[in-house]
Amino acid sequence: IRPKRQRRIAANAPAMEASPRSRLIAAARSLGAIHVGGMAISFAVGVRRRQSVSSVRALVGTKKGAFVLTSDGRRKNWTVEGPHFAGWEVHHVKGSPANPDRLYAAQSGGWFGQLIQRSEDGGKSWEPTGNDFAYQSETGDHLWYDGTPRPWEFKKVWHLEPSLTDPDTVYAGVEDAAFYKSTDAGATWEE
To answer: Distance (Å, rounded) from C-alpha 74 to C-alpha 54?
Structure first.
């Protein structure tokens, strides 16, 4: 089929029912996570399979807190839990592939600073974990946007990545430019 013919067929195609992906995006949009001119701070989707039934969980971090969206395998109807940490900016929420009930959230607030939270029950309850992200070696300077030298300094955790196989190992990417690892479920961090 020629490209022009394909366009005509698509333009004349009957309206289809919303796809599971578009329903998920609509649910996230209703939380303020995705909007015109911007995207969610974080948005992660995981499929959980138990015997023959599957479920989908979307973890959404926004400037208004964290949300856990869940649905059955058909993804027609979604339940929304949250906001967790209302009023806090949540940069990333991620579940552990090795233990799906263990979730991590990287939150930050202008007044209280950076905080990592962990849930052991799929997001029903949360507890703070270790938050010592000190640089372990001399950092040196980097050039600031105006060309002046500035020292590297820790500001916030932007990304959390749990290990695929070890439920107690999690990695953190931070601003200014560092990478940390925890082997005790976030209690302590090593650069």
So the answer is: 9
Among 96, 93, 47, which Cα is nearest to 72's?
47
Angle, alpha carbons 28-34-39 (nearest 5°): 135
Instruction: Read off the pTM.
Output: 0.69
Are 179 and 172 spatial neighbours (Cβ–Cβ below 8 Å)? yes
182, 190 in Cβ contact below 8 A? yes
pLDDT score at 19: 59
Would you say 159 and 172 are in contact if contact means Cβ atoms under 8 Å apart? yes
State both tokens at 156: 């916030």
Cα–Cα distance measured from residue 35 to residue 41, given in angstroms and rounded to the nearest whole number: 11
